[in-house]
Each structure stands twice: as structure tokens, then as C-alpha cells.
Amino acid sequence: MTEALLEVHELKKHYPLKAALPFQPRALLRAVDGVSFSIARGETLSLVGESGCGKSTVGRSVLGLLPVDGGEIHLDGVRIDTLTAGRMRAMRKRMQVIFQDPFSSLNPRLKVRDIIAEPITNFHPAVRAEEIERRVASLLEKVGLPRDAIGRWPHEFSGGQRQRIGIARALAANPELIVCDEAVSALDVSVKAQIVNLLQDLQRELDLSLLFISHDLGIVAHMTHRVAVMYLGRIVEIGTRDAIFLQSRHPYTQALLSAAPQVEPSAAKRPRVILRGEIPSAANPPSGCRFHTRCPHAFERCVKEEPQLRRVSSLHESACHLNDERPLQ
Questions:
Q1: Is 19 helix (H, G, I), strand (E, B) or coil?
Q2: 218 burial class (0-12, 13-18, 19+ CB within 10 angstroms)?
Q3: Is there a contact between 9 and 35 (Cβ–Cβ < 8 Å)?
Q4: What 8-state DSSP symbol labels residue 212?
Q5: Contact between 214 and 48 (Cβ < 8 Å)
Q6: Could you tell me which of 293, 282, 288 has the C-alpha nearest to residue 303?
Q7: Three-state DSSP class for 88?
Q8: pLDDT in tens, 91-142
């Protein structure tokens, strides 16, 4: 996994807030404020963090569902954030999404056949009806649904089955990158495992790249290659799965990991990290390190100077001033 399929550099997405008084300058909600990462072909990068940190905004910006306010997004070497609507349409078939809610993401007025066939007819209008029917049936089989599902309505399926339909729809366009936006968070635990295993099987079979957005660290630990940890619109730590879960260097990452339940009795017990205070507003982030208002290790430099991502090992970067006091691994 060396060739980068997706490259994101200094991505920014800001939302203007309503002014309290007429003629008062409007504040900006800095939902994403300078995020950079890359995803190789066949790789899964997981984006984790608390609700409201900007994870889903990153995913939707990558897909072109939201206009960006700064930075660059490259897909296979082509900058896509500045493309016209017509040229973006041609690129869109290479990127698909699996949404969080399997109940609202499927059109209740369409049968399964039409839901899955829609990307095929959109991107390949010359394909004959017989070939579309065969393709839909093949996709249903690939995601583990019976052939007779093709003529049924979305309300006839369970949540897990609906998410399988959503996966089949995403695969219909033959994408290279799939954004999984909390794709398993609305499902029962046993169904989550089935969907995650299905995604892993499909990734190996089709050489897919996945941007997996989640707050479930147990699922992330099971399926990802690399992890990027977001806090208040910025990535504070990024590295391989083992680097993040076994050798995390940022206090926020350590707090997230300590809050995650450990179900394996043999696993080493992590020290409990208690964060004080509330998450600051993204409209008025703290000076210096954005995490210093809640960090148990904050010192004077953290208040004044914003830390940048710094290499702490060959495949691991962390944005924390404490790293200057520690040797590289």
C-alpha cells in the first residue's frame, strides 16, 4: 500500500454563524480547519474523535457534497475540489458513500432493483436492461442477500439488510474509494460484526480504499490500517493501528482509548484518563493547543503556541508539545 489514491492537504470548511445584532460581523464555525492526510490503494484510514469534531464534514467534503473553503483534494493525482460540475460528475463514480442511517438512506418509493441500478444507469446509460438486471443480482449475492430481494421494498428488510443494500448500491458504480460515514453505528452489535467483515472481504476482493469515519474504537481496531484522531477540526495524531492503539503519544488519544471498553481479559489495562471541562466551541477555539483547556499535562507553552504534527516514529505523527521532550522511536 504505497500508491496514494486520495490526498487531502490543509482542508478547511467553515460555516458562517448568524450575527447576534444587525451589522455585527458574523463569526465562523471552523468545522474543519487545516486537515491533511492520504489514503493508499487498498488501504483503510479511520477518522475518529468525539461527536462534532468534524469527521463527517471531512468525508462529505472529499465526496464533493460540500464546497470547501481552503486546501486541496486530489483523487489519483487529479485535483477535484476545483472541478466544474460536469467534470466532477465523471469523477464521482470513482467515489461512493455508505451512510450512517440504513433507514433514511434508501428511497422508500423504489424497489431494491431500482435503488442498486440507479448508479449504473447514471454513469453507464448505454448499458442494456438485461445486463443491469444481471449486475444487480450479482451485487445482491456479493453482499449476502437472496436473489428474491431484487423485487422487494426497503421497508421489508431489517437494518442490517438495508445496510447491505446500501453497500451494494455503493459498489454498483465500480468505485475505487468508499467513504463509510458511521456506517455501522446504527446497527446491533452482532450485525455490526457482520457488516465489518463484509466490508473487509469486499475490500480485499475489489482492492477498495476506505475512509472509515467512526467513534467506535473497537470496530476501528478490528478493521483499519491507519488511524487519524480529530479534535475540534484538526488532526492531532495519525499513525498505524498499532502505533495509535499501543503507543499513542497525544493526551487526547490516550483519553479516548481509556474510555473505550476492553472486552479481552488478556489485554493490558489502560490507565484511566479523566478530562476536565467541556469541549470548546469551534467558533472560538482556544489559543495555542486547542486541547489545552482539558489536557491534564498542559503547561505555559500549550496556551501560547499551537503544536504541529511531528514525526514520533516512521509511521506515526502527533501534535503535542510533550513530544519535544521525548525521543523519537
A1: coil
A2: middle
A3: no
A4: E
A5: yes
A6: 288
A7: helix
A8: 999 999 999 888 899 999 999 999 999 999 998 888 899 999 999 999 999 9
